[in-house]
Amino acid sequence: MCYPVTFINEIQKLYKQGLKQKEIAEKLNCSISTVKKAIKTDPEYKKIRQEKKEKNKEKYKQAKLNYIKQKREIEKQKQEEEERLWWGMIEQQRIHAQMISKRRKLSTAQAVEYSLSQYFYTNEKLVYINPHQKPADLPQTFDVHKNILPQFKEYMNKIESEKWNSKVEKEALK
After folding, report:
1. How far apart are CA 12 and CA 25, in angstroms?
2. CA distance 161 to 150
3. In this predicted model, which residue has the larger pLDDT, 75 or 138?
4. Own/partner pairs for 30-39, CB < 8 Å, 24+ apart?
């Protein structure tokens, strides 16, 4: 198949502008093989091809550098996060050691406060959940009103506000 010289020159011109073979074929409404044949007849074809090759190599290098840079940033963020967690743990250990070493002996109220999850609240007292597995230094029951713990002040205030609200609601409904 023979194409006019102007058509071949148009294909070569578009190729020199940087369009891909497929794009040229779609634009001029011809087959890709026709575009390939026309491009190969150009005397500057090898030079243009070499330039594109170098441009693509440079593009690849840049993409690779960006990928490595992103990967290092992610690793750095993970490292900083782990370091923050580690220093937080060290600080917490220091605080706990300080709390424990302030006194040689824990008071009963402090012992109950540290193991509060093992108690439940009934009849104005704290009662140990499982008395058969209770350590010797913890009391079976603990009177909250003798030594009011900060948690129970909040709890007591919450209960009082609920009582007050329920009284007000009852009066409002009457």
Report:
1. 12
2. 17
3. 75
4. 34/1, 34/3, 35/11, 38/3, 38/7, 38/8, 38/11, 38/12, 39/11, 39/12, 39/15
Dihedral over Cα of 147, 151, 154, 159: its sign: negative
**Of 54, 55, 23, the residue nearest 39 (C-alpha):** 23
- Return the closest-CA partner of residue 115 out of 95, 90, 135: 135
Tell me how far apart the alpha carbons of residues 44 and 47 are, in angstroms, rounded to a whole number: 5
Cα gap 166→174, rounded to integer Å: 12
DSSP character string of 64-113: HHHHHHHHHHHHHHHHHHHHHHHHHHHHHHHHHHHHHHT-SS--HHHHHH
SS (H, E, C) 43-61: CCHHHHHHHHHHHHHHHHH
Contact assessment for residue 8 and residue 26, using Cβ atoms and an 8 Å cutoff:
no
Tens digits of per-residue pLDDT, 51-89?
889 999 999 999 999 999 999 999 999 999 999 999 988
The torsion region of residue 106 among left (phi > 0), alpha (psi -120 to 50) and beta comes to beta
Q: Residue type for 53, please?
A: K
